[in-house]
């Protein structure tokens, strides 16, 4: 037993000699975690907003093209397309002006000729979160997201 006590006392002496670094591992872990965790959380936030903009742009372009080709006239079609873009943008919490985000182009003149095609192009600019306004004034910190959809005007409808 004396041999075991000597070994144990040597072990305790070594542990007591290292007391100068006691508690530093926790601080190092917290520091490294913050350095790695903050950029990852920011990246997840940015990617989430970009994905939301992608959903909004795709849905807005699809519905704008559909509503335009089913309208009775070009003026009504434009209003309906802008309204559908407004709904799609608000659904994903974007405050962009739908009239500026939407561009409609037709393959024929007038637009709603049977067999013609209507292209809806929607572009959304996603600002990076938590960037102060004075920095945005100096450097454009936005991610542009766009989508296009083409819809055909029904061949069996009357020209309007």
UniProtKB/TrEMBL annotation:
Q: Which residues cross the membrane?
A: 21-45
Q: Which UniProt keywords apply?
A: Membrane, Transmembrane, Transmembrane helix
Q: Which domain of life is it from?
A: Bacteria
Entry protein name: Pilus assembly protein TadE
- Organism of this sequence: Cellulomonas chitinilytica
Instruction: Show the taxonomic lineage.
Output: Bacteria, Bacillati, Actinomycetota, Actinomycetes, Micrococcales
């Amino acid at each position: 037993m004396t041999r075991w006590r000597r070994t144990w006392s040597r072990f305790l002496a070594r542990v007591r000699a290292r007391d100068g670094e006691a508690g530093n591992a926790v601080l190092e872990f917290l520091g490294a975690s913050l350095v790695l965790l903050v950029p990852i959380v920011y990246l997840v936030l940015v990617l989430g907003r970009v994905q939301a903009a992608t959903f909004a742009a795709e849905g807005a372009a699809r519905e704008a093209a559909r509503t335009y080709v089913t309208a009775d006239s070009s003026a009504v079609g434009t209003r309906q397309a802008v309204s559908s873009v407004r709904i799609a943008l608000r659904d994903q919490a974007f405050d962009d002006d739908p009239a500026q985000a939407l561009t409609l182009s037709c393959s024929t003149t007038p637009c709603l000729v049977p067999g013609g095609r209507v292209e809806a192009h929607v572009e959304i600019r996603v600002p990076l979160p938590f960037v102060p306004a004075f920095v945005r004034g100096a450097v454009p910190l936005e991610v542009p997201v766009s989508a296009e959809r083409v819809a055909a005007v029904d061949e069996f409808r009357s020209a309007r």
